[in-house]
Every structure is written in C-alpha cells, then in structure tokens.
Amino acid sequence: MVMNKRDLDKAFSPNKIKRFGKHGSGVNQFKPSTSGSTSKNLHSDESSTSIKVIVRVRPPNEREQQDNYRTVVKVVDDKMMIFDPKEEENPFFYHGVAQKGRDLLKKQNKELQFMFDHVFNMHCSNDEVFEGTTKEIIFDLLEGYNCSVFAYGATGAGKTHTMLGKENDPGITYRTMAELFCQIESQSELRDFNLGVTYLEIYNENVQDLLHKTGPLALREDGRAGVVVANLKIITIKSAEELLSLLAQGNRNRTQHPTDSNAESSRSHAVFQVYVNITNKLDGQVKQVKLSMIDLAGSERASATGCKGARFKEGANINKSLLALGNCINNLAEGVKHIPYRDSKLTRLLKDSLGGNCRTVMIANIGPSSLSYEDTYNTLRYANRAKKIKTHMKKNIISCEMHVTGYIKLVEEQKKEINLLKQKLLTMESRTIPRNNISPDSDGQSEENKKELRDMRDRLSEIFEKRRVLNDKVLSLQSTDKILCCRIQYKIAADKRLQNLTTSFNSLVENQNASGKSRVNKSLLHFRRQRDVVKLQMQQVWNELCDVEGDITTLNVEIKSKSMTEKLSDTYASHKSTLDNLRLQHQYDHARKVCSLQQCEMESLDTIARTMSGTLQTYYTMMCGYGTVTDKMDMEFRQLVKSLEGVRNIKWADADIGTSQDSYSLTCLSIDELNDPINNEMPIHSSFLDEDSPITPSAQNNIANKTFDGTPSVDRESEVKAEIHNSTVTIDESELISDNVDNKMIEPIRTLEINVNDLNNTFKLMENKAKKRLNDKTTISGKTPVKQFKKISPKTKTLTINGIGGKENKITSKPAIPMMSAKSVAILNKLKTDRSKFSSHISSASFDSTGSSNNSSNINNSDSTLKAMKSKERRGLMTTHPYQKSITKPKINTVPQSSRVPW
Ligand SMILES: Nc1ncnc2c1ncn2[C@@H]1O[C@H](COP(=O)(O)OP(=O)(O)OP(=O)(O)O)[C@@H](O)[C@H]1O
C-alpha cells in the first residue's frame, strides 16, 4: 500500500501522538523490553541513554539544480538547522504599489528551527559523518553493549550513499567495520574475538538472506535471544577483508530498481549485522554483542516516484513498514506503554535498536530543495521526535561459568606464566647485584665513597679548627705585644721629659725627679719583661701553627689526589670565612685598644702642656719684672707661644709612613703572615723601643725646660687654646692614622723638629718643607688625596699649601718673619705692656720717681689698650673662627672630629 501525503501526515500528526500519550502512563512507567538481550545477563551495568539523532543534508541533484528549486534547508551550525527559512524580502507590488505585508499569493515560510546531536551540511563527506556518528560506538560495542545505526529518509535523500557509499567513497558501514577490526586487533592480547555476520533485506515484507540464496525467512521471538530470524546463517569471519567482501556481496544481491526519484532506488530495507563474541583471556568472561547497520528504504509518494505495478507494491510495503516505524518511535518518545513492534517486520527486527538494550544512532537524510519539501519536513519531525526515545543499555555478559577442565587449563597456564615471571625476576636481580657493589646510589656515589668523603671533611674541619684556635692566640699575643710597645714608648717619652726638666735645678726637684725616674724605669722594666713572656708564648704558638700548616698542606695533597677538592670546596670556603672573621674581629679590638691608650696619653700631655705654659708665663712675667729677660729668652718665649698655636705639628704628605718604627705599625696587626706561617717570621714588633732609642719628641720637653715668669690668667689660657685651634691643618687619612698614635710626641721629630736651640728656625723649616713640596712635585704620590693640603686659618693667612698643586699652590707668607697670628701678636703686646707696667712699677717704687708719673700714665694707657684688644680679640674669635664653638664647650681637651688636626 502506497500511502499518500495525508496518510503520512496522519501517522505523524501531533494529535495522534497526544492520543497515544493519553493511553500511556508516562516515561517513568516505561519498561524496556527484556527480550532485547542476547543472553542471560549475570552482570548488568545498565544505563539509560537517548537515541543519538543526526541529520545529513545531501547536495542538490541534477534535476533540482536544473529546475532551480528553492533551498528549504539552512544549516546554522553543526547542531542547528532551519527548515524553510525566511527568504529575503522582495517587495510585493499591487497595482504598481509596494505593499507592506507579505505576498498573500505565496505560502508563508515555516522557519522551523531544529536541534540535533549533529547536523551535517551538503558538503560533508562520508568520512566526516563516520567520525561524528559511528566511530565512537565501537568502543561501547566492545564493552558489551548492542549498537545499532540506521538511516532514515525519503527516497533519494542519500541513505544508501551514507550507509554504503561508493567504491571510491565508502559509506559508514565499511568504515565502521574497518574501525571494529582495528580495535579488535589492539585488544587481541587481552581478549579473544569471534565474529559472525548476517546480511538480510526486508523486501515486500519478506525477510531474505542476502548472503545465501534462500527463500523468505521467518521471524521468531526467543525468550533469551529476542527476535531472531529463523535459518539465517551467520558467517564467521576472521578478517576485515572477509567482512567487507561479504558486505559487497550482500549489496549486490539487494533489490534495487530505478524510480523517477532515484535511478538506484533501494526497494528494500537492508540490515547488516555483526555478532561479536568477546572472551576475556584473564577471567574468561564472555560477552556477546551485536552491531546492526540498517539502510532503510525511502518513504515515497506514488505521485513523486511515478511507480506502477511491482514498484507501486514495493512502495506501499515500504511505506507501511515506515509507518509502523513512525508509530513505534512516537510511542517510545511519548512513553506510551504499548509499542506496536509487531505491525511490521521492520519494527520487529528493530525492536532491540529502538526500545531495548541498545545504543542507537539514527541518521536522518534529507534533500535540500523544495522539490522534496514535504518529505524533508516529515523526516525532520520524525527525527526530532526520535530524540526523545530512551534506550536502556546493559552489558551483554554471558555466564562466567566454566567447565572444571577450563579452570584446570587456566590454572596451568597461569602457573606457567608465574614460573616464567619468576625466572625473569631472578635474571634481573642477578644483573643488578654486581652493580650494587659499584654504585647503587641514585647520585652515582657508592657508600664507600660517601664515607671517605665524610671522613675527609671531618679531618679537614678538625685541622681548620686547630688553625683557627692558633690564629686566635697569635693575634691576641700580637695585640698585647703592640700595646706593650705603645706603653713603653710613652714611658720613654715621660722619662725624657723628666730628664729635660731636672738637669740643672735644685735638689728638691732632683729628689722628685729621682723618685719619678725610678717609677718610670720600673714600669719600663715591667713592660719589657711582659714583652719577653709574650715573645716566648708567641714562639711556641707560632711553632704549633707551622706544624698545623704542614698538616694542612699534606691533607690538601691527599684531597687533591682523591679528586675531592671540588666536593670539599664548601668546607674550604666555610673555614676561610671563619678565619677572615676572626682576623677582622682581632684587628678591630686591637685598633680600639690603641686608640683608647692614645686618648689617655693625649689627655695627659695636654694637662702637662697647660700646666707648663701657665708656670712659664708666671716665670717669664716675673723675670720681665726683674728685667733679667735676655733678648734670646724673649725670642724663645715668643717661639714657644707660636708653637702652642699648633702650626708646627704638620704631617707632611710625602713623609715616610708605615716603617717598622712608625706608630702606624703599632695600630695594625700583621695578618698576612698568618696565611703562610712557615715562610714568615712570627709577628713580634721589632725592638726599636730600646731605652736609648731616640723615639720621643723633645720639643715640648725642651721648651718646658726653660722657665718663665708670669701669672697665667684664665683669659690668657683660653686665648692660647684659641690660638692652638686657630691653626687648621688638613692631611690625608693615612697620615691621620699615624698622627693619632702619638701626634704630640712623634710628629714634631719627623716633620718639624723643634728644639730649644733651633726654635728660631722653625718657620724656616716649614717654609723649606713647603718649598720642597712645590719644587718637587714628583715626590707627591699619585695616591695623595685631594684633601691633602695645609691651610693656615684665614686670620693668619701666612701659608697655603695644596698637595695637588693649583691656584692655591703658592706661598703667601713672608718667610723671614715669624708667622704669628693677630692673637699671638696681641698676647705678645700684652706681655710687653705687662712688662713695661711691671718695670715702671718697680722703678717708681724703688728707683726713679720721675719716671714714675710717665710709667703710671703708660700703665693706665696700656691697661685700657689691653682690655680693648682682648675684647676685640674675643669678638673676632667668636665671629670668625670655625672652632670657636668647640672652645666654648666645657671640655676643652676634646679631640676634633674631622680630618682637620688642630695641632
Ligand atoms: N551526500 C551526498 N553527496 C553526494 N551525492 C549524494 C549524497 N547523498 C546522495 N547522493 C546521491 O544521490 C543519489 C541518491 O542517493 P541514495 O541512493 O543514497 O538515496 P537513497 O536515500 O538511498 O534513496 P532510496 O531510498 O531510493 O534508496 C545517489 O546518486 C547518490 O550518489
């Protein structure tokens, strides 16, 4: 029976669906057919899944292209398409006027949107369709699930093209089979596969075997296996080639006749089935699965196909079976309890695929043009409805029961395998044992090597520790020795001072001097004895250090011979840094001690100088009063005052420093010798400080040896201090270190020696020194800092020397005249005034009364002048001198902070 369009519409009408729906009890009440299972299921991994629905649009055929049919399908993307999309608006003219509404003579576009699992447009190849549809179901099949793929659509829509394809473009059935064999091959180690195929067609409601020439076959329902085709022979195959040749053979046998719609129209539904028996090699589990590839005959309209006679009958049967299929799909989609599988042989065969234990893919083929408008519309509605169908997949696992003999066989096989593995293990172990002795560790070091390295590290640490302790002792002893040297130096200086002071005076002073001298000598003796002890200790420690150094050298050689130097580099580095730290710490401590000692000495000398200057002034004044001051004494006094100004204590930049007899060497510890004690002498300071060594300066002592009369006033004292600070000398830092040792005692000797006998030549010496520097520029070291210059304060402006040489490198002083600042001049003037005052006072009192009035007036004049001068002097100091502030501070002996040395 050929069904017309009305019949088909009726079959798929929504009303009918609703009607079925009313009878049904809903999705939840849907019970999958148990008849679908191919075996007794002992293990069932059941899951519910929807039918996968795919739409493929074929390209327009020749006829459609020639007659220029409208395209009624628009593929939006790989999941969405629009049926009968709206065309571009062409204005509708009525009586020559464009109308706003649509052309009422034309049918309105449906513009139906459909969503599917996949939509293939007309340009997609069979390979793409295979990739997107059936490739993935092979995995499910081999896992134990039945799978089914069927192509549905109107005649000429491309079903056969999709399923079977052509020789040069195989369809998805070929490709799926090829993939199946590919997968079987990859799993063959774990599983055994047995394959069988059947190929049948339903033609005019008769089931025929396409691989064997038989008569119509009957369908039977089996409680265990479901619907089976009686007497359908399953052909066992071993290879993909066999399978494909059988497929080709069946295709050749299939009924095909040309119709108006399709020159190669398939007039039957073809079902190609592959049965696969999967046996797990490990547990013997057996699965039986079935893959069905179904190429349906196309629904057709008699008017379209123009079939008559036999073709008409074929068409009627095709439509009948398709109508039954449609009904089943509707009911399944709506969850209707009754599914009319029995209405046709096709639906009976597809029972498993549609509503049973199966993973199903439906490919809906459609034409693109308006020529097949109704067919395409029906197919899409059909496919859309099929989306709702849910199948219930479960693994088709057959009994695991095995015969006892099977188990015995299995156990035997496994025993063999175990023995084989044991042998392999033994072989591998025997290979690894000898390697164990060599280097089993992951880092390539044997345990023995590691132990040796550890031992070596321990030895190295031990010996370095010894070296550190000995270094510590050497440095401590060295520091003690140098401190003792300083003390001896100061004691010798004190002794010289005493000698100078007491050479020619009365017995009282002599007695004092005797006790002082013996005290100094005692101290000197004590210090020298201490030095001897230190020397002895040092010798002992030094010898030990040499021994340790020898051991270190031996150990180094051993380490080198064992190529461990690199591995022990961290130990070396660590010990080196420890030693460096130790040496630095000792150097710092020693420098601090020396500084502290010098500070004490400087304070002591400062007190002496101040006391002496007061005493001298008293005596000078007194002698002036008695008129016993000779010109020479007067000059000496002036020179002394000048010397107190501080100009003379200049450390010249080109003077030698750092010699063994320099105090600089007492400030620093000898570090370098410690690095190579074997080739160096032990670091004990040289014995330049013997009793007879002329180390101490005697300028102050000699000056102090001379007595002057005069009472020192507080003002005068402060003025003297001001004079001292008024002289500003800047030297480089290295010299500063040297000066700090004993500036007052040593520097005058090396720079400008000032003795009583040659005080008059002091400034000449200075001048000569300056000249020497100017003339002999080559003697100025390149290292000499820029700051190396001597500058007399702006007030005196007598001498300016720049170490580098430049515009300031000129002498502005007048060398023949002693350089005295205004304040010094003021002091001398005052002394003169005092002296004249004093003489006039004496003369007026004892000798000459005439001169008395003159002298008296002079005294008054000189008093007022002196006062004015003094106040002026102070004002000048207050306002101009940069050291003024420090003078006003209560601690007058404060050592200046900057690089400027005020003496
Ligand atoms: N995607 C396609 N690409 C190219 N040609 C196609 C495509 N689909 C179909 N055709 C061609 O269209 C024609 C009809 O296709 P086919 O025979 O596969 O239709 P059919 O649906 O199987 O029809 P019937 O139901 O009558 O058997 C064939 O010549 C085929 O080569």
TrEMBL record:
Region (Disordered) location: 13-47, 432-453, 842-903
The Kinesin motor domain, residue ranges: 50-389
GO MF terms, alphabetically ordered: ATP binding; microtubule binding; microtubule motor activity
The UniProt record lists the keyword Repeat: no
Similarity-based family: Belongs to the TRAFAC class myosin-kinesin ATPase superfamily. Kinesin family. KIN-8 subfamily.
PANTHER family according to UniProt: CENTROMERE PROTEIN E, KINESIN MOTOR DOMAIN-CONTAINING PROTEIN
Name of the protein this chain belongs to: Kinesin motor domain-containing protein
Native source organism of the sequence: Microctonus aethiopoides
Taxonomic placement: Eukaryota, Metazoa, Ecdysozoa, Arthropoda, Hexapoda
